[in-house]
Fold these 2 entries.
Entry 1:
Amino acid sequence: RMVNYVSNLNSDLSLIRHGSWMRVMKINNSLITVTPNTLTIEEFAELGVLYWRLNPDDYENDEELQKIREARGYNYMDLLDLCPEKVANYEEKLKNFYTEHIHGDEEIRYCLEGSGYFDVRDKDDQWIRIWIKAGDLIILPAGIYHRFTLDTSNYVKLMRLFVGEPVWTAYNRPQENHPARKEYIKGLTGKLGVPLEAH
Ligand SMILES: CSCCC(=O)C(=O)O
Ligand SMILES: [Fe+2]
Ligand code: NI
């Protein structure tokens, strides 16, 4: 199964479409009000965010994951067990994860246990919150503004994938002149066929 996107929100913020799903919501910047909103498949795909629903139980022998890794050249892999006992400078790392940033490369995360929120900016610069749970593989394109935070489960175990030697450098917003940002915007504009300002 390839990429599928939620086009709408129901009460529990999930929707089944083509046998796969993502839990998404729009939030306002204060994070106090959660605003359920309609998000079409097209709108989400235009952001360049990819998503797969996999079986996390036997991830070491998962052929579907293997196929994705081979197709996209993800030869690097490690596991991030996000808990204070296992992560040095835990609080500081969480703070950095939740600071809006971009990378020069894709950010590939596969949730094996626990859960958390990836927030990405949509084409109108509004946050879209993606609720990641075990089995969710998400790929954020280089240059997209994003951030991550734990939810009330307070725990997540993530597989990190990368092409070649990993680079985790985060460039905090604003980064309008960063090459990856420029490329990303160019791709967005190209896909939309109209300047972003037109929205
Ligand atoms: C906990 S992984 C997600 C946080 C992030 O955006 C990053 O690592 O760059
Ligand atoms: Fe990141
Ligand atoms: Ni628009």
Note: The chain has one domain: 54-193.
Entry 2:
Amino acid sequence: MNTENRVLTDATASSQQRSIPRPSRLRPPGSGSRIKPPGSGMRPPGTGIKPPSAGERPPIYGLVKGKPQSAGIKRSVSTSCLAENRSNDSHKRQRVGSPPGTKHGTGRPAPQTRHTSMKATVRATAPTAGKPPSGRLASTAPPANMGPSAPGGKSKRAAWDLKGRLLDMEAVLNANTSRLVVLESTNIQLEGTVKEKEIVSTEISLEAEGLRKKLKKAETELESIQHNYKSLQHKFHTSEEERESAQAQATSLRSSVTQLTAAQAGISVELQATKMGFEQKVSESQKLQAEIAELRKLLAEREATVRAGEQKIREDEAVRRALHNTIQELKGNIRVICRVRPLLPFENSNGEDSEIHHINFPRGDATKLELEKLIDGNPNESTMSTASTRGGGKYQFLFDKVFTPASSQQEVFDEISQLVQSALDGYNVCIFAYGQTGSGKTYTMEGPDHPDDTSVGMIPRAVMQVFRSAKALQDKGWQYDMSASFMEIYNESLRDLLSADGKEQKHDIRLKKADNDVEVSNMIVVNVAGEAEVYKLLKMASRNRVVAATNCNERSSRSHSVFRMRLIGKNSLTDESCNGVPPWPQLRRLKESGSEGKRLEETKNINKSLSTLGQVILALANKDTHVPYRNSKLTFLLQNSLGGNSKTLMFVNVSPKEEHFNETLNSLRFATKVNNCNIGTARKKV
Ligand SMILES: Nc1ncnc2c1ncn2[C@@H]1O[C@H](COP(=O)(O)OP(=O)(O)OP(=O)(O)O)[C@@H](O)[C@H]1O
């Protein structure tokens, strides 16, 4: 901007300043009063003019005080410059904000610019030559009396030129004032601009705030979206995994489906085959059902036939029993079987042959036996070689059956088994063995000490038959209750051989009048359901039996033993019943010679039993009114088995030893006596 323009601008600014009084920002520190704009009159020094800084000369206020500038100059300049000024207003404002040659942003002209500006002002207001400048503008012109130019082109006033110097200072002050005005105007404009900017800024701030809020909202939304995104991503991953899993499953299922399809095809084929098979089976089943119906019809017919057959069997059984009994009757109710035992190994160990010379068994006749007395044991010299009658050298005996030493236990049992059957049919059956000690009674009745199937005796075999027959008879409606007792007659007193503790108890024999049955008090009666149980009882009895050594036999017994087995049968079909009690005693005849003291007493008692038995049998045979049953314990015990209501079998056991000839003869004579007895007809016990 040139000097004129600046002056006009200053004037305009001064007028503006007057109309809008504004506090100056360029007030000297500590002044407190405002600097009046040009045209408003200068104030006295100290009322608003900034004092000169140190080194500067103090201004001479008195010269310009109250003197206004030349109005004419100022006005003309102002008029000519208004248009330009107005047109350049924007440029001015721009230049005021940042004039060329000024330091940017400070608002102050650079030193060089200030200097130039001052020179220009002096040029514009230069007075005519020879005339001192009037007013402030005039005073700015360099006076003629200026000294040599100051460095930089400005001539320095002479020290005495106070006025000139004052004028210079005034010019400077004016320039500064103008500048101040311009600056204040600029300041006002800038403040306006600042205000505008502040408004804009506020608007921008509000906008920014709104935008921030929007941003925040957007951020929140973004966060939410991000969260949603993450969630969706997670869901996506999950879905992806599920999809993969489903895909795997689908693959597996596809494979399963393939397999199942294959299996289904197989099953379909199988099903078809099964269906066909089933249809075939149905057809077969229908055929079978028809057959079953036919078979049922046939079965019904057969059952009727069987029932008729069973009825026939029962009738036949009754006939058989009747016939069997008739046979037994024909054979006699007392039957005698003779058995000669073999020589024992130790009995012929002296080099003798094993033949028995004094006993003959006529060939072809199993009922006869001959006893021959040999002289010194020589078979060729018999004392009774021709005699076959009583009193002769040879004694012939006839029994129901004679068994040789070679006869087996089974052969003997076959002979007595029919009698055992009679016990099942309800008859009292008494089987007893009679003979001298060591003649084989125990062997025949029970078997050896350690029996096997071939050597087992008559009692176990009879028991076996009883149980087997009883089982077979179950089909015909028979049920049997079986019980057993085993007793011993020793020195005319009874002992229970089944007593486990071996305690002696008193036993009395009673005859029950109701059924004429013999009962022994305090005797153990054991119910038996099988053969094994009976064998156990036999062993127990064997242990309890009194065994005493005699000179006749190393295992001689000094007693009679009686085994009783009671069979009570009931037929549920025919309402029949039976009650058989077969006692199987072993009766001993003892040789009295050689026995003494207690042994002699035992022998006498045993033989007394046997002689009483003979008397009883004779009485029965003679049909005596009195039968001496009660003369011995043995006959009393066998009372029911020796009467007309029972079937009796007597074994007469014979020792093969020739030295026992006399005892053998006595036994055979007694047996013959028994065999000749007719003790009446046995009646079935019902
Ligand atoms: N038929 C037989 N076969 C083989 N050995 C027999 C036969 N009979 C008896 N014995 C044997 O003869 C011996 C005497 O027999 P057992 O003991 O049976 O006579 P016992 O008459 O009972 O004598 P006791 O009256 O003294 O008791 C025994 O060793 C026995 O094994």
Note: The chain has two domains: 3-190, 332-675.
